[in-house]
Design a protein that fits this description.
The strands form 7 sheets. The chain has a 7-stranded mixed β-sheet with strand order 5-4-1-6-11-8-12. The chain has 2 domains: 264 residues, Spore Coat Polysaccharide Biosynthesis Protein SpsA, Chain A (Alpha-Beta Complex), CATH 3.90.550.10; 84 residues, UDP N-Acetylglucosamine Acyltransferase, domain 1. The protein is α/β, with parallel strands linked by helices. A hairpin with a 5-residue loop joins strand 9 and strand 10. The chain is globular.
């Protein structure tokens, strides 16, 4: 069995405000040295998928720079490999992708010419760890046409922002509602789908030319009673970074929890990312660091508490950083205080300045800003 991986990474993530003004949500930095897309891409590679297409659209420069040739994921190869799939102009079409189904339809050549029998579709802005080989086995044993990965959400998720499913006694999906105002269950689709490649092509050819541009609303839901949609229930950690500033902040704070780090970084293989030749972080005699992640190339002379510090950050003596996310290349000068904040790349917080947010909604400093 050969599987083609497709990662939907074209969304901007409007709810993320200035963090995605110049980058796609899948390119957002997380946990010190990773990007959001690293998790889905690594899951695919760890599950034996050696051909992956990245469907990108909005402001793709930083995402393409990060992915490169796919070397870090062992996808720089002669057979298979990494494919960056952007919208393009032809004699008959000059459109951006109109939706998730349309993005795959416009790249149908990748499906037609490939030797793969099956397709796994995921999203580039979801944070989770999964062995997809278990999903593949479940798909075949259940006799499914399409297998949808679902999770029972707790109260920390807003169910109205997700696709909600209802199951019968054999975990067959009997009802699928996209972002319902009154959800009937707490079982939500995680945007991960596995199916036969020929079936996917048939569905796309049947619906996209007629205006069915969305994979869930226009293709899956109308066929829910015609095909066998089976639910694969996932009970691990999963969050959607695209849902907003609070969600992005929460995800990075979650990395400080040992049980979540163990699940995401030690189970089912490594999480791969673009490497940079930087020295280990340096802690001077005046530094005080507790319950934090500090990444390569950073120099800490101040106080850091419950924070995520990215690469090449300088926190000088007398500065205090608490409950914050500090992106790459930022400098926080002497006596400055940053608390409950997200500071984007290459910003500078001057001597004795204060950036204070709240635990409910962090302050945001834009890329390159000087405070």
């Amino acid at each position: 069995m050969k599987v083609l991986g497709l990662i939907l990474a074209g969304a901007r993530g409007k709810n993320l405000g200035p963090l995605t003004r110049m980058r796609a949500s899948a390119a957002l930095p997380v946990c010190g040295k990773y990007r959001a897309i690293d998790f889905t891409l690594s899951n695919m590679v760890n599950s034996g998928i050696s051909k992956v297409g990245i469907l990108t659209q909005f402001s793709p420069r930083s995402l393409m720079d990060h992915l490169g040739s796919g070397k870090e994921w062992n996808l720089d190869r002669k057979t298979g490999g990494l494919f960056i799939l952007q919208p393009f102009a032809t004699e008959t079409s000059m459109f951006w992708y109109k939706g998730t189904a349309d993005s795959i339809f416009q790249n149908m050549t990748l499906l037609r010419r490939g030797e793969e029998n099956y397709v796994l579709i995921g999203s580039g802005d979801h944070i989770y760890k999964m062995d997809f080989t278990d999903l593949f086995r479940y798909h075949f044993s259940s006799g499914a046409d399409v297998t949808v990965v679902v999770k029972e959400f707790d109260e920390s998720y807003d169910l109205r922002e997700y696709g909600i499913v209802e199951l019968d006694g054999k975990n067959r999906i009997v009802n699928f509602e996209e972002k319902p105002k009154k959800p009937k269950t707490r079982l939500a689709s995680l945007g991960i789908y596995f199916m036969n490649k020929d079936l996917l092509m048939e569905l796309l050819y049947s619906h996209v030319p007629e205006g069915g541009y969305d994979l869930v609303k226009d293709i899956f839901i109308p066929n829910i009673n015609k095909l066998r949609f089976q639910a694969y229930i996932f009970d691990g950690y999963w969050r959607n970074i695209k849902k907003g500033i609070r969600e992005f902040y929460r995800i990075n704070m979650d990395f400080l929890k040992e049980e979540i780090r163990r699940e995401l970084f030690y189970k089912h293989g490594k999480v791969y990312t673009k490497l940079k030749d930087l020295p280990p972080p340096k802690f001077t005699g005046t530094s005080r660091v507790s319950s934090s992640i500090v990444s390569d190339g950073s120099v800490i002379s101040g106080t850091v508490m419950r924070s995520v510090i990215f690469r090449r950050v300088r926190i000088k003596a007398g500065a205090v950083v608490k409950n914050s996310i500090i992106f790459e290349g930022t400098t926080i000068e002497e006596g400055a205080r940053v608390e409950n904040a997200i500071v984007d790349k290459y910003a500078m917080i001057r001597v004795e300045k204060m950036v204070i947010g709240t635990a409910d909604y962090p302050a945001i400093i834009e890329k390159g800003a000087v405070i």
